[in-house]
Write a structure and sequence with these properties.
Elements lengths: L6 H8 L2 H10 L11 H18 L1
Length: 56
Amino acid sequence: MNTGKTVFAQLLEYLPQHQSRRCVNRYKGNYKVQSFTCLDLTRKTVLFFASFHLLV
């Protein structure tokens, strides 16, 4: 049984949020976004790949 962190937690820890927010602000990634922000997209993508990794 796994006693450590989940794959999802490890991947999110690897991605620095400060740097991600800086890039989003610099390139106006959330321009005219109403609900699904770039940070949400990143989290959902990481969650997808983490769950896919567990299935394979």
